[in-house]
Amino acid sequence: MLVGVCDFPGSYAFPPAGYGGIERWLWAVAVGARVAGADVHLLGPGWLADLEPDWVRKPDRLEDITAGSLAERELRSAGYDLLVVGHEYPSLPAWTRTWNALECDVATFQHSPVFHHTSTAFDGRRSRLYCYSPEMIERYADYQPAPELAVHLGLDEDEPPAVAGSDLVWLGRIDEEKAPHIAVRAAQMLGRRIQIVGPVFDEAYVRHHERLFSASHVKWVGELGGPAKTAAIRDASVFVYTYARTYVEAGAAVFGESLRAGTPMAALTWRGGTCAEAALCDQTGVITVGDPNLDDEMAAGLLARAIEEAEDLDHTQVQEIGMQRFDPARHFTAMSTRPC
């Protein structure tokens, strides 16, 4: 099987070392496809040039290719069986025109809870959309999505054997949608130190919760990548997951990252059918579902109890399950197989 993994013109490098959603997912699919025995071409100019000794890079993006051009003929002659791409592209006319000329399958994962596809973007067979959670499946039901847990990988983020860590950790972009202030308050209730890892996206949000974020039990780590990021997750006793009441999580990378590192999760959600429910089980995490009408203080109390329960989980077992559930080869195989 020949697979083309198309880069995404975002602000992160390909493959990313720290953050990025679609970028980390595309790299995981490329790695998983190779492990599963497929030949892989990295399509588009975004991929790092130093990958070339080990990977085949084709610098053209499909949406930039002219009909009947030499570039199109070369793509056709390659004989791709599957293209993997960011979720927007099957709705982009210029990209779709070139894809149709290649006569291959396309698969993508829904990374946004609000993007609207064209009515003809997916047929459930040759063009396939995958969604993380029951919530997202229902949200995109018109496009015949299939359920699948997204796997994300970054450069030099291989996980060492699990250990029972000490501090709590929260990781992600720091803004109101991700609501890390609730995690900070839950840690404070327990008398525990919590490390906040990630880039600040909303300074006003941080200022609004300045009293919490400047408390002595909070360690601001900043944005990490590579081994440092993996170590921050692995060395924690519990990964604390939060988000805002009205936010819909399309498919957070942190579930796979935490479980593969052997760190159990304590998750605060506001309804059933979320990504946390899809990713976690009784052996890997504790989910507390809060009433959206609860104030932050009561929500933090629920989360604090979930943290205490999650600390009793076995880190080695968490990692074993995480490596199976978020295996890139398994993920690729699931996405590359046409439904009967």
Order of helices and strands: EHEEHEHEEHEEHEHHEHEHEHEHHH
Oligomer: single chain
Helical coverage, percent range: 25-40%
Beta-strand residue fraction: 15-25%
> What is the tally of helical segments?
13
SSE inventory with pairings:
Elements: E1 2-6, H1 22-35, E2 39-43, E3 56-58, H2 70-78, E4 82-84, H3 93-102, E5 105-109, E6 127-131, H4 134-139, E7 146-147, E8 168-171, H5 180-190, E9 194-197, H6 203-208, H7 210-213, E10 218-222, H8 226-234, E11 238-241, H9 254-260, E12 265-269, H10 275-279, E13 285-289, H11 296-310, H12 315-325, H13 328-336
Parallel strand pairs: 1-2, 1-4, 2-3, 4-5, 5-6, 6-7, 8-9, 8-11, 9-10, 11-12, 12-13
Helix pairs in contact: 1-13, 5-11, 9-12
Q: Which terms would index this structure?
A:
single chain, 340 residues, alpha/beta, 13 helices, elongated
Report on the structure:
The protein is an alpha/beta fold. It is built from 13 helices and 13 strands. Strands 3-2-1-4-5-6-7 form a 7-stranded parallel sheet. The protein has a 6-stranded parallel sheet with strand order 10-9-8-11-12-13, sandwiched between helices. The mean pLDDT is 95.
